[in-house]
Design goal:
This is DUF1080 domain-containing protein. By secondary structure, this protein is mainly beta. The protein has one domain: Jelly Rolls (Sandwich), CATH 2.60.120.560. Helix content is about 5%, strand content about 45%. The chain is globular and about 45 Å long.
């Protein structure tokens, strides 16, 4: 009950500007201008297997190797919106697991690491909207601080994911140290007092084929 009440208390201030006309594309649908690649085995420049490929106006992530694409720009106080849908292929070591990916944000430093210190909105079959706090990042959820760990998880409060093969809209709002995750317009997770409050945005490749489109951001002026 406490978690439900918190969602209703914070809901109006978080979503007042949801999907406003101030959102601007950060993926042009033609190439990865404004983004950098990193693959765990290949490093920051090589992608011989085309793990990240732009086709038909969409970002196609094969999932064949762990890695990410990250914005070259850092963001503080923003509203991110994107659409994703699952492909069919899965790869070791997760070929028998749920399809998995994620949106990491407030990434302070990129480097040769899977995964860099950040906050993650989980994109995983059945678990879209779970919170992951990576590399000792902390936040308050339900008024209680998470413990600093390599990976700390907070499950979503409700489900908004559509069936396999359909496009899902995921929104991440990060403002004044607070966060809110929406899946297809449904508020599924939120908290406050994040210990990291600015940085780059990255999209993971984590063993599953996934497509992204309509990647947009509105930056808040405080």
């Amino acid at each position: 009950m406490k978690r439900t009440l918190l969602l209703f208390v914070l809901f109006p201030c978080w979503l007042a500007n949801a999907q406003s006309d101030k959102m601007k594309p950060i993926f042009n649908g033609k190439n990865l201008e404004g983004w950098t690649k990193f693959l765990q085995k290949q490093g920051a420049t090589k992608d011989p297997q085309n793990v990240f490929k732009v086709e038909n106006g969409e970002l196609h992530v094969s999932g064949q190797e762990f890695g990410y694409v990250a914005t070259t720009k850092s963001y503080q106080d923003f509203h991110l919106s994107l659409e994703f849908k699952w492909g069919e292929k899965k790869y070791p070591p997760r070929e028998r697991d749920k399809r998995d990916a994620g949106i990491c944000f407030n990434v302070e430093m990129l480097g040769n690491k899977i995964w860099p210190k950040s906050v993650e909105c989980q994109i995983q079959e059945g678990d879209v909207g779970d919170l992951w706090l990576i590399d000792s990042v902390t936040a308050f959820v339900d008024g209680i601080s998470t413990e600093p760990k390599d990976y700390a998880q907070v499950k979503k409060i409700r489900d908004g994911e559509l069936p396999h093969g359909e496009w899902n809209r995921v929104e991440v709002i990060s403002k004044k140290g607070k966060f809110s995750f929406l899946v297809n317009g449904i508020l599924v997770n939120e908290g406050e007092y994040m210990s990291v409050t600015s940085g780059r945005i990255l999209l993971q490749s984590e063993g599953a084929e996934v497509y992204y489109r309509n990647i947009k951001v509105e930056e808040y002026t405080l």
